[in-house]
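Before a colleague's protein record goes any further, I have to sign it off. My question to you is simply how this chain folds and whether the tokens agree. I do not need a full report, just your reasoning and any doubts. This is what I was given:
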Amino acid sequence: MRAVIAEDSLLLRIGVVKVLEAAGFEMCAQVADAEALLAAVEEHRPDIAVVDVRMPPGFTDEGVRAALVIRRQYPRTAVLLLSQYVEERYAADLLAANTSGVGYLLKQRVADVEEFAEAVRRVAAGGTALDPQVVAQLLVRRHSDPLDRLTPREREVLELMAGGRSNSGVAAELVVSESAVAKHINSIFTKLDLPKAHTDHRRVLAVLRFLGVATA
């Protein structure tokens, strides 16, 4: 898989590059600002762009805005945002714009080399990877929320789904069978009023509802 890295911190950028190269990624470009990122994506059309949330010149939301442009103009390029702190608004913006090939991780996760590389692979392949702290802060609760119908185990399953885990990944994490996970997921769909439909992906809709991201 081919990747572009946008990170203004030279040390972190070098670290991410080394991790991904060791994981088998081809590094197409390494840049330090949003403008250079967009130029690199246009030139190389990578499988994934790993992007710092805050970059020059303003160090506010340059990375997020560039990521939204990438998802709109180059939908085949997945985007993984890296942030020093949890900024749930940015994660919600990215998820609302597209529900596949997106990720949002705290920079501290890079230190866990294997887990970080696997998250990048998953996003590049069209999946999702959300930092557990991001998931925790994205949760929105309202009175009479259908989420209140879920059992503690179903909430655990849905939280792992929100983190990008497949059924087998959820089963391994909870030490249960895949058939048990499938039953929990079907129950979640029922309790969240998500009937079968050809035009909607119930798994995505369930995760978005869990994260409090509005859908049309």
